[in-house]
């Protein structure tokens, strides 16, 4: 049975001469299988009719492959036979790799019912792989949280130190996955160390340093720098002029009270659009950048801003 890409209908040629035996069993020893010419037919083609197969195409010289493989092996054990992890060393088995059209690694293909259902290239984060896999295979009910989810839970609980430790480990294991470094900067900022957070961002490659996620963390750092101190805030007590209202809004945003800060900026914009050369509107846009385009507050307050403008 050929592997067919359902999106194009084109068959993927498979190696000839491989054995025609039954699919791999769900015995724990067979969750992870090294693929060669002798078992490709059995494990990948026939085996995928009964059990989905995750075909991990890798090479010994590929550093991202070395980062990805332990994650896939961990998931294979967690899923306990719900899928088979088939590992193909493209250096040792170039004929198979050529017939599968492998051009770069890591290349991970999900084979089900003898067909290519989906695939991804590169060493994706564990959380993203879990989400991708869950589209096709039901995750175990007792599956542990991914490191990313553990870090997010720690931040939500106010434990920035634990989140930093998790992200440092992820950065060490995945040095070319720069989003982890941005996450580390964010957790470092949450822990109260703005300068270290800024240093992490400054050391990113330019294309990642200027990406929306990193810009958002930098915006939060800048809000902390710009917001009035406790002493200055106390000196504004009783004042309701535009400057006082703006500075109080900045402090709210810097302290993470985003909704209150956004409301205050919208109110100031409505009352005194000219203040600070349109400072309220421009600061609203910076808050949206800090939160991210998909954040519920960004979505809601963009609508409010649009309604106010038009």
Automatic annotation (TrEMBL):
Start and end residues of each stretch annotated as Disordered: 1-25
Chain intervals with Polar residues compositional bias: 15-24
Alphabetical GO biological process terms: response to stress
Gene3D superfamilies: Glutaredoxin, Tetratricopeptide repeat domain
UniProt xrefs under Pfam families: Thioredoxin, TPR_19, TPR_20
Keywords of this entry: Disulfide bond, Electron transport, Redox-active center, Transport
Thioredoxin domain span: 21-138
CC annotations in GO: cytoplasm
GO molecular function list: protein-disulfide reductase activity
Protein name per the record: Putative thioredoxin
Organism of provenance: Modicisalibacter muralis
């Amino acid at each position: 049975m050929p592997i067919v890409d359902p999106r194009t209908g084109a068959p993927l040629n498979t190696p000839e001469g491989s054995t025609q035996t039954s699919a791999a069993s769900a015995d724990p020893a067979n969750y992870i299988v090294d693929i060669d010419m002798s078992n490709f037919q059995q494990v990948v083609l026939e085996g995928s009719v009964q059990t989905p197969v995750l075909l991990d195409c890798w090479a010994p010289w590929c550093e991202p492959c070395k980062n990805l493989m332990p994650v896939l092996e961990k998931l294979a054990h967690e899923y306990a036979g719900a899928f088979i992890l088939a590992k193909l060393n493209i250096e040792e088995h170039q004929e198979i790799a050529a017939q599968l059209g492998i051009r770069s690694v890591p290349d991970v293909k999900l084979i089900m019912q003898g067909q290519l259902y989906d695939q991804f290239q590169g060493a994706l984060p564990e959380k993203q792989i879990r989400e991708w896999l869950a589209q096709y295979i039901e995750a175990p009910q007792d599956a542990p949280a991914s490191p990313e989810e553990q870090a997010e839970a720690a931040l939500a609980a106010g434990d920035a130190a634990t989140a930093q430790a998790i992200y440092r480990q992820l950065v060490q294991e995945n040095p070319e996955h720069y989003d982890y470094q941005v996450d580390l900067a964010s957790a470092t900022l949450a822990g109260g160390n703005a300068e270290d957070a800024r240093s992490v961002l400054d050391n990113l490659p330019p294309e990642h340093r200027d990406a929306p996620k990193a810009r958002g963390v930098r915006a939060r750092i800048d809000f902390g720098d710009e917001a009035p101190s406790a002493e200055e805030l106390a000196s504004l007590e009783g004042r309701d002029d535009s400057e006082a209202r703006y500075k109080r809004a900045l402090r709210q945003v810097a302290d993470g009270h985003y909704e209150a800060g956004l409301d205050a900026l919208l109110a100031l914009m409505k009352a005194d659009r000219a203040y600070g050369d349109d400072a309220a509107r421009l600061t609203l846009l910076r808050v949206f950048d800090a939160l991210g385009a998909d954040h519920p507050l960004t979505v809601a307050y963009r609508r409010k801003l649009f309604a106010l403008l038009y």
